[in-house]
Amino acid sequence: MPKLLPIVLIVALISNGCASTGKPVAKLEPGMTKQQILDTLGPPADRSFRGTDEAWQYQEIAGFGQCKYTTVWISEGKLVGISTRRGGSVAGCGLGSQPADWSQMPSVERNYN
């Protein structure tokens, strides 16, 4: 058993290294405010900005050796879309993180009256 202890500790640390959404992304609705998103998913693992647009990125373990990466797209303070991808996990989900791909952000019709 003493030989297994270091392995168990390493697995536990890696598992905690992923910022899990903890609640289903399916609860999100277009038009939700940033506060509503935070209340539903918690703080993101990473944030990117482009003008008034934001990309909030979440990552979580989605099964043995698999991670789920979710990007929540926000424009002018409101949720406009969600994109997800899956990737392999070698040493936690953090290694599979990628910069926000702004080409995946849904187009937003702006009213400039």
Q: Taking all residues together, what is the mean pLDDT?
A: 81
**Distance separating the two termini:** 70 Å
Q: In what range is the share of β-strand residues?
A: 25-35%
| CATH fold descriptor | Beta-lactamase Inhibitory Protein, Chain:B, domain 1
CATH class term: Alpha Beta
The structure class reads: alpha+beta
Explained architecture:
With 113 residues, the protein is α+β, with helices and mostly antiparallel strands. The chain has one domain: Beta-lactamase Inhibitory Protein, Chain:B, domain 1 (2-Layer Sandwich). It has helices at 4-16, 34-41; strands at residues 46-50, 53-63, 66-75, 78-88. The chain has a four-stranded antiparallel sheet with strand order 1-2-3-4, with no helix packed on it. The longest helix has 13 residues, at 4-16.
Précis, in short:
With about 110 residues, this protein is an alpha+beta fold. Helices cover about 20% and strands about 35% of the residues. The longest helix is centred in the N-terminal third of the chain and has 13 residues, at about 5-15.
